[in-house]
Amino acid sequence: MGSYSHILAGFSLGFHHRSILQRLLADTPSDTGILRLDPEVLHASGISVLALDFDGVLAGHGSPVPLPEAVAWMKRCEAVFGGTQIFILSNKPTEGRRHWFAENFPAMRFISGVRKKPYPDGLLKTAELAGVPPSAILMVDDRLLTGCLAALVAGARPCYIRRPYVSFTFRPFAELFFWLLRSGERSFVRIITLF
């Protein structure tokens, strides 16, 4: 099936988990971004590991480094969870990003060498490396049919970012594509819950 099997998996797994995805969509305020996530509150709710998507969650698509406010938020998370309990789980783990994290957050780890989200492989590897059950992991992602769905399949907790970081000046066509993709995912989830 090749490199696009994760797209087909998103539709089929999305249909299977349609009612939970619909609830997640309905329960997430439209202005939810990472800055609304309080690390201490997350930790108190039983989360012991964070899995963070990069594009849309920490910066606009294609950015080589996180935004300054995302860096400040990650420092707060590191103080609460510890750097070894925070993982970057992106479908685009570039070498430039790895290098930046190695210099700025050396304890945080990238998950790679696994099938792309929505397959649960990355979260299962995260659970193994962190030494926790998947239910103790919060997957923070701006896509319903990739990261949020992967969390549901793996038995982790999804956190849907409805107000992702975008930069139409830096990469206008990529941002437009992903804006349309996110809108399409929300429409798909709303439609499939009718079945």
CATH level-3 fold name: Rossmann fold
How many beta-strand elements? 5
Percent helix range: 40-55%
Helix/strand/pairing category = alpha/beta
Q: CATH top level?
A: Alpha Beta
Gyration radius from CA atoms, angstroms: 16 Å
Q: So, the CATH homologous superfamily?
A: HAD superfamily/HAD-like
Distance from N terminus to C terminus (CA atoms, Å) equals 27 Å
Strand order within the widest sheet? 3-2-1-4-5
Main sheet attributes: strand count, strand direction, barrel closure: 5 strands, parallel
The global form is globular
Q: Number of folding domains?
A: 1
The total count of helices amounts to 8
Q: Assess the beta-strand content as a share of residues.
A: 5-15%
Low-confidence stretches: none
Under the CATH scheme, the architecture is 3-Layer(aba) Sandwich
Mean pLDDT: 93
- What order do the helices and strands follow? HHHEHEHEHEHEH
Give me some keywords for this one:
single chain, 195 residues, alpha/beta, Rossmann fold, five-stranded parallel sheet, 8 helices
Description:
The chain is of the alpha/beta class and 195 residues long. The chain has one domain (2-192): Rossmann fold (3-Layer(aba) Sandwich), CATH 3.40.50.1000. 48% of the residues lie in helices and 9% in strands. The chain has eight helices and five strands; from the N terminus they run αααβαβαβαβαβα. It has helices spanning 5-16, 18-27, 39-44, 68-81, 95-104, 121-130, 144-154, 172-192; strands spanning 49-52, 86-88, 109-110, 137-141, 157-160. It has a five-stranded parallel β-sheet with strand order 3-2-1-4-5. β2 (86-88), α5 (95-104) and β3 form a beta-alpha-beta unit. The model has no long low-confidence stretch (mean pLDDT 93).
